[in-house]
Amino acid sequence: MPLSHPRRSALSEQVISALRNQIASGEWPVGSRIPTEPELVEQLGVARNTVREAVRALAHNGLLDIRQGSGTYVVATSELAGVMHRRFADADPRHIAELRAALESAAAKLAAERRTEKDLKQLGTLLERREAAWETGEAEAFVTADATFHLAVVAASHNDAMTAMYADLGEVLRDWLRADVGAELTPETHMDHRRLVDAIRAGDAEAAAAEAGSYPFLCRPGRFSARSGD
Question: Same domain, yes or no, for 68 and 90?
Fold first, then answer.
């Protein structure tokens, strides 16, 4: 539905908000190309300059990446996620692994104590989806399924601050996983998370924390760069 037409500055903010909502809702997932400028003009019922201004604003904030000759792509789901992605783009991969382990271990411990039946059903579904993605042999499909599963584990902690922080780090962690599994899925990079789900289901907080905190370090030989000390 076309947007209303208040004064120009307010209209620009409306368009920015509309585009941001498309990203935050998952309508335009990370990695996807957004509609072209003419398509957005038609969808929103605003001038080309207003759309261009909004897209540039979201690119400046780190949500979008304008690639000349290719299009505009979603690179983060929020301004903070964009900042996180830029901040940790060149981080030592071991440090990212340690950060992931620390966050997920703490979250899994809380999840074992607070999970609901709805959480358990969701975890079971996403675990099976993760395994199915592995069976396809498509690395990117597996990265997406794995990231979705782990976010659900953190969400089951029912700690909103922890869940928001983990979500904002999402693309950083996906980059780490892409590098870890490589272009092709191989048996040595597969991790079975059934014990993690079982521990959460059983309410065993210590076992859940141990499971979540151990798997990031089971990486392929030579995974880490020389600067990490390996």
Answer: no
Q: Show the tokens assigned to 211.
A: 């499971």
Task: Let me know whether 89 and 71 are in one domain.
Answer: no
Kindly report, residue by residue over 85-103, the tens digit of the pLDDT: 778 888 898 898 899 999 9
Q: Give the domain extent around 44.
A: 8-75
Class of residue 56 by CB neighbours under 10 A (exposed 0-12, middle 13-18, buried 19+): middle
Whether residues 62 and 147 share a domain: the answer is no
Amino acid found at 165: M
Residue 12: both structure tokens together = 């620009």
Q: Which two tokens stand for residue 181?
A: 């599994």
**Predicted TM-score of the model (pTM):** 0.68
Strand ranges (E), the chain: 64-67, 71-74
List the one residue out of 98, 97, 28 whose CA is nearest residue 58: 28
128 with 144, same domain: the answer is yes
